[in-house]
Amino acid sequence: MINRKLKIGIFVLALVFLTVCCSRQTGAAESVGLEFEVPPPENSEAIGAPSLRLFNTDFKGATYKSQENIYRVAAFYNNFFAQAGFNKTQDAPIKAGSNVHRLQFRKHNLVVDIALTSKPDGAEVGIAKYMLDEKVNKLEDMPLSVNDSIFMLPQADMPGEDLGSIPRPPSSVRIASMKVGTMEIVTYTTKTPLLELRQFYMDEMTHGEWQPKSNIDMAALTANYKKVTGKSDLGLGKAKFPIQGSRNLEEVATQGYILEFTGGAKESVRISLLPGFFGRNPDNIVQIAYTPENYERK
Amino acid sequence: MYIKFATNKTKYESGQIFPFLIAIICIVIIMAMITVNLGQIALFRTDASNASEAGALAGASFMSGQAASFGITSDMMCAQNLVKCAAIVVAFLTMQFGTAIPVAIAIVVTMLSSNVTALMKAYTDSQMAWTNARKTAMQYAFSNAPVDEPRITYEDFLDCLVGGCRNGSRAAPTTDNYNAYLYTDSPNVGLRNAARQYARNGFAKFMDNSNDGWWIDESFGSVEAGPDAPVPSPLVVNGYGWTWSPPLPPTTQGRYINSFEDSGFTPAQCASNYCWRNYQNFIEVQVKSRLMYAFELVGLPGQDALGWAVFAYVAATKYPVWLAVFAWTGPLAPIIAALLSAAEGMLAKILIDSVKFGIDFSNPDEMIEGSPVEVTVARYKAESNVGLWNFRYATNPLMPIRAKAQGHVFREMGNETIAPAFFNLGALWNLILFIISFGTLNDWDDIFNTQKHLFETKLRAVQ
Fold it and tell me: Which residue, B36, B101, B116, B358, has fewest beta-carbon neighbours within 10 Å?
């Protein structure tokens, strides 16, 4: 009889223990959001609450001026975030030789970045809260977004000139114009499909004084390359640009076309028609590289 | 009786040696004949062997020169892409992010298209190079193997001089046509031209016509060379032979004919029927080699470190720019500036990482030492009298004497490569800074290191 009561007692204790443990585990798994309150530093006054969106992430900021020096402020926040269950992920000058010290704390998705600037009469404190995917170690690793205005491709022609003797693609925007040595390179974005662009240039160029030199279908060429070499790709690299929706260069290369023309005695033109690879649903890219003197004949 | 015997004994003994002497002389003559025959066979074997080795070495030598050319191509790509790397850095340093990104895209597209076209050009070049290597190997093999075609006699010359070789009417011998025969020289233009024409044997004519005669490369452009294709893959066979043609009406004289002139086959038929093998004396040359090399685009050793250097340079330079842009956020500006300058630096690094600086063989050991030009020379000569013995060179045209040799490119110092040989990171960074500062590249010697691309040629023993 005693034995039975003892067994029941042990069972109940075990149940209570497990319940407590599970509840702690569940609590630990709770995500912390932007609503998490970060207290102002001691002896401080608020000077602003800037908010902005970068890296496709909302920054919720708060700035203070404290009469305490940065060491005391740092100690305050180290203590606070340790008690709140945050991990410290950074504690160093923001860059070598700088008087700005950076503290960073993280709990699951929530990251709190604190900039402490030493001032003669205390410290300036900037606090930014933002959410990060748990798989992402730091904000710099987040893919940029074309929704951020600073990363958007131009919607109107950038400064520079078109190439007079070579037509620009239909409905296009000139995004870059540069000169490398004797070569003039103009790059456009356009929504016109690649096959239409290919036909457009084959028609337009051959109506002029240009003679087609090569017409490379990258897909067919890559397939032949793989067949001949037994390799799985052109080796252009799998790295993607850190922009959301970007494609790697290998994918881009296998879907493009390269047209080459020669004209007059020494001119040559290479027209690269590539799918956009920068951001989500990007426009196609047309690049015209014009060389007044055919370098291959040198 | 004794006296008689004793008197004749001298005569009897003096005749004893004669049969032995005859026997010894016969043995010596037979041995001499055998020696001459064996010597001739050895000589012919040596000729075939020399021809195959000369051909293999010539083909391999051609490829070693081509390998050096690929190395220069790599160096050129390296130099051009270094300038583009510098342009990427300049774009990030001098432009606002919004402007730098389109410029960076433009540079990446330029690199992408120029790298792909360079890779494909290397493939085309390598295909043409192997074709030319086979062609060179075959030329050298033919040039080093004597076909010992009978030269036209003065009598034949006189026969053919007047009305063609088969009408039986002979021109009268004169000093003029004798000089024409000997020296292919005569004041009579017609005679001189005829003499020159006759002075050229069938082999010379055979070597003349690359389309119809000696060079029939059916493999070029039609071989499906894939990863499973044997190496060396394409095989080119060609040959030449001569024989004695019996008299044909109305002539009463036979003559020597060669497979080039009189085979009766079209060149295409000869290629498949090996018509020279129907002749009394022929040489056949087979050349095997790769169809093309397997290349890949490669970066530079230490390119990752270069990328991090660019990252640090861009991030450090752009930090104050972003700090000024986001000054309105007050004490938060340093963090935002740090994040954005780091992101910008990272984008520049990824662009630098994606640069391919040259080409290399995807498997250098297989593509260099493991890709020989293989030349097989087959010689056949029907049973014929060479004056001392009924000389046999070979009795069966299907089993000629063969000599095989493989020539290949090899790395004498062990570190030759077609990849860009530039690998000093410090110098690389200095070059980029120089280009950034002055907009041009002046010290090309650091990039073009031809010694790193100098391959040698060797013969390899063949089973």
Answer: B36
pLDDT in tens, B354-386: 888 899 988 888 888 888 999 999 888 876 554
Residue among B120, B144, B110, B397 at smallest CA distance from B273 = B397
Nearest to A84, CA basis, from A131, A32, A41, A134: A32
Q: What is the pTM of this model?
A: 0.74
Structure confidence at residue B405 (pLDDT):
94
Q: Which of B92, B113, B291, B367 to mutate to test the interface with A (most CBs of A within 10 A)?
A: B113
Report pLDDT digits (tens) over B277-320. 778 888 888 888 887 888 888 888 778 888 888 888 888 888 88
Min CA distance, A15 vs chain B (Å)?
A: 48
Please tell me the distance from the alpha carbon of residue A76 to that of residue A80, in angstroms, as a whole number.
Answer: 6
Nearest one of B42, B332, B318 to A47, comparing CA atoms: B332
Whether cis (ω within 30° of 0) applies to the bond prior to B250 is yes
Whether B390 and B36 have beta carbons less than 8 Å apart is answered as: no
User: Which helix (DSSP H) or strand (DSSP E) does residue B140 occupy?
Assistant: helix B97-143
Burial class (CB in 10 A: 0-12, 13-18, 19+), B414: exposed
Residue A186 three-state SS:
strand
Domain boundaries along the sequence of chain B: 1-84+111-144+230-299+355-455
Look-up of token digits 């410090």: B426
pLDDT higher than threshold 80 for residue B425: no
The Cα–Cα gap between B128 and B183 comes to: 40
Taking CB atoms and an 8 Å cutoff, what residues of chain A touch B329? 48, 50, 52, 61, 63, 126
Lowest-pLDDT choice from A157-171, B228-242, B258-272? B258-272
Distance CA A280, CA B29 (A): 95
**Angle of the B154-163 helix axis to the B189-199 helix axis, nearest 10:** 130
What gap in Å lies between CA B342 and CA A65, rounded to an integer?
A: 27
User: Look-up: residue for tokens 């081509």?
Assistant: B66
- E strands present in A19-56: 44-48, 51-54
Residue type for position A8: I
Q: Which of residues 172-231 of B touch A (CB under 8 A)?
A: 225-227
User: What DSSP string describes A224-239?
Assistant: HHHHHH--SS-----P
What is the spatial distance between Cα A74 and Cα A127, in angstroms, rounded to a whole number? 12
Are residues B329 and A48, on separate chains, in Cβ contact within 8 Å?
yes
- Measured CA distances, A289 to A183, A188, B154, B454 (Å): 7, 12, 68, 33
A131 contacts A33 by C-beta, under 8 angstroms? yes
Residue corresponding to tokens 């290399």: B360
Chain A contact present for B421, CB below 8 A: no
Enumerate residues 6+ apart whose C-beta is below 8 A from B254: B244, B245, B246, B247
Is the ipTM value over 0.85, yes or no?
no
Among B79, B382, A255, B294, smallest CA distance to A247 is for A255
**A8 in contact with B at a CB cutoff of 8 Å?**
no
Q: How many CB atoms lie within 10 A of CB A96?
A: 7
